[in-house]
Amino acid sequence: MHSPLLPGGCFPVAATSRVALTFVPRIQLSNAMADDTPAPDSSAGPNGSVHEETGLPDDFPHASRLEQAGVTSLEHLQAVESLEDLTGIGPAYAEEIKTALDSRVEATEEGATADSGTTEKRSSPLSNGQSEGAGEGPATHQSIDIPDGPLEETLSFETYPADRYGHEALGLSDEAVLDMLRNMLLQRRFENRCRQMYQRQKISGFLHLYIGQEAVSTGSVHAIELGEDSIITAYRDHGMGLAMGMAPDVCMSELFGKATGCSKGKGGSMHFFDREKRMMGGHAIVGAHLPLGAGLAFAHKYRDEDNVCLCFFGDGAMHQGAFREACNLAGIYELPIVFICENNQYAMGTAVDRAFSKPDLYKHGYNFDFPCSLASGMDVFSVNKAVRDHVENYARQGRPSMLEVRTYRYQGHSITDPAEYRGEGELDQRQSEDAINRLQDYILEHNLATKADIEAIDDTAKQRVKDAIAAANEAPFPDEDALYEDIYTQEDFPFTT
Question: 158-419+427-478: which CATH topology?
Answer without folding.
Answer: Rossmann fold (3.40.50)
